[in-house]
Each structure stands twice: as structure tokens, then as C-alpha cells.
């Protein structure tokens, strides 16, 4: 998932995230029934630490993407508003010609 976030493959990331949530729940249930020795417990802690680091990176990338999309939406809304405000006026005036320039002088 970290690689997908770094590559900005958002649709694939969401698909993976869905599977990730299911797997985390399965691990939680399994964790209740399994007893680990000290070595396995240490390995589990190391893996969890790496997973959490990746999760922080993924969340940071997702927040940046959300902000980017928000800006794009804002620009699009401004363009739409400008078009609505000025497009009707442009349609009634007709195209500008050279005759218009000579008439105004």
C-alpha cells in the first residue's frame, strides 16, 4: 500500500486498504488465541512498528491528495461561477469586429 501511495495509484490503494482492514481484524482474532515466545513477540513488535510507519506515510499522502483535490474543485467552481456570470453577456453582444473599432473613434 505504501508503494501505491508513493506512486499515486489511488484506486488501487483503496482496493488494497479494504483487504487490509479485513486482514487486520483476522489478525486481532488470531492474536487472542496464539501465545508467542519472546523472539516471536519481538518480531511481531518490529513488524507492527513498520506497519505503523507505513500507515503514517500513507495517511500523509492521502491528506495531501485530499488537499490537492479540494483546490482543483475550488478552481473548477470559480470557473463555473465566472462562466455563469459572464457567458450570457458575451452571447448578446456578438463578436467584436474592425468596424466596432472605427465606430468608437
List descriptors.
mainly alpha, Methane Monooxygenase Hydroxylase, Chain G, domain 1
Describe what you observe in this structure.
- This protein has helices at 2-6, 10-33, 38-93, 98-103.
- The protein has a single domain (2-80), classed as Methane Monooxygenase Hydroxylase, Chain G, domain 1, CATH 1.20.58.
- Helices cover 87% and strands 0% of the residues.
- The mean pLDDT is 86.
- The radius of gyration is 28 Å and the shape is rod-shaped.
- It has four helices and no strands.
- By secondary structure, the chain is an all-alpha fold.
- The protein starts with a helix and ends with a helix.
- Residues 77-105 are annotated as: Disordered.
- This is Flagellar protein FliT.
- One of its GO terms (biological process) is bacterial-type flagellum organization.
- InterPro entries: FliT.
- Keywords: Bacterial flagellum biogenesis, Chaperone, Cytoplasm.
